[in-house]
């Protein structure tokens, strides 16, 4: 099966696209003329989004090799990959963390990024004029460790390593590491606090926060740069977050 792209042929794949930064990025890219393949686990949300932006919905679990391989089999062209699927669980001190949470965070944030990158890299390498681009969604948590964040800090450090390794090893595909600071995305916090809405909301209450659309605009801008330009790292924080 081959996914039809828009008139200029440019195709972007956005993982974790069913909500938050992924959804906002898909909308921003579509508005900029990309055909966007929105990929995530929640198919109903994806289909609604794809219908809204003129894109294509593909159900995807980045922790599953078969699911990732199936994504690649549906594509014959990819110019841009936004590795956005990820998340955090828990905010306990390291000594009290659940190893299962560590495993989920590494499998989703780190190995999920590797899986999708590996299967789509040949298509990205084939993009016209060496214009292939990968945007890895990192975090300021990958630079600065904070109390209760050990597993997520370690996972986002892993995303940094992946981005740097790709930059060193492959000069036919551009790689950008995008590192947001505090972004008010409800589902991220709900997942972290296991559905505790009050605790999730408290993270953002009384703070100046970025929105998912702020990060999406950075994704759109990076993707709009000419093929000879590589934005290595971009960090975005609200004004009050030092």
Automatic annotation (TrEMBL):
Top-level taxonomic group: Bacteria
Do you know which PANTHER family this protein is assigned to? ALCOHOL DEHYDROGENASE
Taken from the record, one Pfam family name reads adh_short
Task: Tell me its family.
Answer: Belongs to the short-chain dehydrogenases/reductases (SDR) family.
Alphabetized GO MF terms = oxidoreductase activity, acting on the CH-OH group of donors, NAD or NADP as acceptor
Q: Could you tell me which species this protein originates from?
A: Corynebacterium lizhenjunii
Classification via InterPro entries? NAD(P)-bd_dom_sf, Sc_DH/Rdtase_CS, SDR_fam
Q: Which SUPFAM superfamilies match?
A: NAD(P)-binding Rossmann-fold domains
At the highest ranks, the source species' classification is:
Bacteria, Bacillati, Actinomycetota, Actinomycetes, Mycobacteriales
The entry's protein name is SDR family oxidoreductase
Task: Provide this UniProt record's keywords sorted from A to Z.
Answer: Oxidoreductase
